Input
Amino acid sequence: MIEKIIGWCVQSRKIIVGLLVIITVVMGVLATRVEVKTVFTDLLPQNHPYIAVNNRFKQSYGGSNMVSVMVEVEKGDILSLPILEKIQKITNDLGRVTGADPFQVTSIASKKLKEIKSSAEGIQTRPLMWPDLPRDEAQIAQLRKSITDSSLVYGAYVSHDFKAALITVDFFDHLVDYKAIFEQVRRIVDENKAPDLNIRVVGEPLLYGWVLHYLAETGYIFLGTLASLVLVLFLIARTWHGTAIPLVAAGMSFVWAMGFAGIMGYNMDPLVVVVAFLITALAISNSVQIVSRFDHKIARGIEPTSIDAAKASLSKLFRPAMLAVVADAGCIAVVALTPIPLLQKIAIIGGIWVLTIAISGVVLPALTVSWIRNPGRYAHPLNIKPLMHAVLHFCTHAATSRWRFFVVSIAGVVFVVSGLYAFKLKVGDANPGSPILKPDSVYNQDAAAINNIFRGSDRMFVVVSGEKQDTVKQPAVLENIAQFQRFMDAQPEIGGSVSLADVLPSVNRVLHEGNPHFLELGRDAAVNGELAYLFVSGSDPGDVQRFAATNYKNASVTLFFRDHQGDTIRSAIARIKEFTEKHPLPGVQYLLAGGLVGVLAAVNEVILAGQMEAIAWALLVLVVVAAITYRSLVAGMFFMIPVIVSNTLTFSYMAYHGIGMNINTLPVVALGIGLGVDYSFYVVDAIRDEMRRHGDLKQAIGHALDSAGMGVLSTMLTLVVSVCLWSFSSLRLQSEMGVLIAIWLSISAIAALILMPALVYVFKPAFVVGSVELKGEHVETLCT
Amino acid sequence: MGRISNARQYEVAHYATLQRISSLGGAALPFLIIGGLLYSAFFVKPKVEGVSVEPPVIERRDIFYGVAIPVPGSVWVAGNQGKIVRSDDGGTTWIHQATGVTAHLQSIAAWDPERAVAVGNDGTVVVTSDGGKTWAKTSMPANVAGAKLMRVRTYPGGKAWAVGEMGMALSSSDFGVNWRSTTAGEDVSWNDVVFVKDVGWLVGEFGRMQATRDGGANWKVLASPVKSSLNGVYFRDEHEGVAVGTEGVLLLTKDGGANWRVLPKIVDEHLYDVLWDGSRWIAVGDKGALLTAGISGDKWSDLSRDAGTTWHTQVVGANGSYLLAGYGVTKIDIDRDKRTETKKGKQ
Output
């Protein structure tokens, strides 16, 4: 049946290739619609309760798209006219950045930071330094006094030593344009630069801005990788077709996938480039197999003509190739189970992309090679094939001599040790700063400096929600909030917290001549209402909404985090739950959680819940596909071995290097499962095939490694050499993932070339050797 | 030959065993593995776990209003949310003592290292007689309920005085277990009380002052030269005393309070407490205000350092070495011009 289809394909090759070209052109046009950008809402699991809380309250309590700018002087302090002028200018300019919420720009120069004073006329609140700057030294001295008087400002927006001031700006989620924000904020920073003055910027919009900033570099690296692919392929294959065909195959798959993304209206996240490269690697692997099998058949004179060799290669490789494609597509498709839109899009596009390899990486290469006139002619004299054959012979020896037991035992030990170590893999970020950028990047250094001076630039808000109006004026509720803050502040990574329960005591103290003995809440709801009223009077409505709803039905507690490592966030969430369980308040709920850290908590929880599920499903897909293909459950199990070993090893590497499982690494890991098994499919299928032909297992393994093994080795070398270029990327995520993929490919190749043949030789699974052949071999062994 | 054939037989047996194992495993394992995968896909839900956090004894949000040194080396500090901590090495290490109350404690005083009393909001009074291992809330006269007690001082023989809102001036003579009101509750807040034997003085809001010469049985209103709040008072003997108040007010009397002299202002900050330590006067207040004077009490000098939110509500100590209550506890050594803050998380 398959033979017939293949025969028809090769006969109608002109029509088929013509069709493929037309489809590729159409898809290419559609692909131009795909924009390279990060869509913020794609990163959030929208049905997670934290995200619901964030969406509901972010407008008043501060969302996750906040940028903090720190102005820091090296000499003197910030309370000098030129510096204050700069702070004012930056504050005003930040409010005009695309997508900024002009009412959520906070600094000593904004209307939002006020001093509360008692005077003969009563209590007054007035902005610290808005709209006008201080005019003389006396006014500056007054400003200094006002700042130290306000606990909401001193230490929060001005450092305790007056050497640094903070300006924060919130962005509307739906208007976030990372490129625009990055460029405009950088321009503001550049315009206000001065000697002895540091301006540092941190915040998620900036972070994604940096990723876009490096887009050109990413492009160059991609081109470099491509060039390197060409070179290494050319070196190994020594033929033009051996070089061009895998690249054409990969290119066609890419265009089709992007065309499909264009139809779906998807965008391309720059951080997904790693996944794109992985799938490209799969396309190359598969087409190299076809081409190298074709070359093998020609070189050995097994088939006389190009057409026959192409037909034979395709029919031999059809099963393992389809197995590889379907298993890989299944593995990436299960990522869709993690309910984060970005991951679901990656799963859909990735799945389709992998499926296109069936045509671009399997059928198209076979059809193309059938046209080759002088297949045996080499394009350059340098031949490293003998070296590779030597390696493969070594592999054959290791798998078929007594060393095979050693190989299998070592694999067992590696599995157990790495399996145990892999449990150290963390979900979420494993280090302070952003894992996307390098530790010494401007962004991460700025983040470290700001978090060192101020109480933490990453925020989480928790909403204390009541059933009735004025709930949060009740002393019991406010006392509970105060206790909650005390409890939360004990965590070292939390730099501080702020809520209505901090604001009201400050007002109360002002009412009592500034006496700290009265730094406390009012004794009843009415007094607290008065205090709140005094704080509100003369403010914009939005100013109070930072702390509580206008009807005082709910209030926020904002926690400031010095980092957003997975462990930090998990501890904080667990502690919030611990507190609310131990100190329940009737009619009052603590709603988790908004702001950047709240959103990250949701993402991490979803990934934590999803990772086991995704890995289990991916393995299941693999087992089922292999079992069906070979009509043997043992086959399903057998192919799990290389996958599991390469997984535990890779996880161990991630744990060792502090690479956390997050939204960017999860798809790579899922694809890696498929990647880990492709090579084994080809090698084991070739052993099976050779076994059917001459019944001698040792010889079958030797032949299989010589043909399929050669394909594996050349693909692995090509991809590993190329992917190493990624380590030069300024984006830490890309350089780390580059190394990770290189390791993964190497381990998979070693598993396919040594471990799998050894396992076949030791266990002689029926689906490979066949029951009859096995007996035959025993007889043969006995007779010789 | 025989050896070779033995070896071959061994090999056959060996393969047979391997084959049996693989066929046995082959039959059962796949189902086990697929079952296991299905199980983990559907039922394994990793739990969100955090690292446990041990809160430091002195926390970032601690505000201490009162400090007591029963004997050199031992220190008690009391503050917001009913917190009391104790040190027995002069303030290097601290132990949290559970009081069982959540009301803010405004003042603490001790008779000896075992017995102490702390007072605070809502008429809260807690006492200990075992060095603070256990603190017990004492029952107070009915009219104290809800009144905020601002200050407590202890005197030999188990005597104690506590003052506060609603004209509260309470005394105890059994180490703080039983208390009685000595003034008719009026709508005035007393901020401090001090006794020299049977002679005592009260100061409070609106510059009010009262004095007694009979251990509190009768109180006499004193004429005050100021209308602003007086926060602290201390007498080094029956005649000479100093009172401090808001906006840097410093009052001096040499005649037991009959006449008070307003001293020139050294600082504008509010002053909250004043103390005669046996060799010098010392006063503390808002924004790090720290003043001292010699025995005459009329020439004060400003030793304030870092201005900031570092207010202090009480000073205790002697011989140039003092402990100040505020955001944490500050140890200062005036003669060596040294100060150390208790360790706290970053603000």
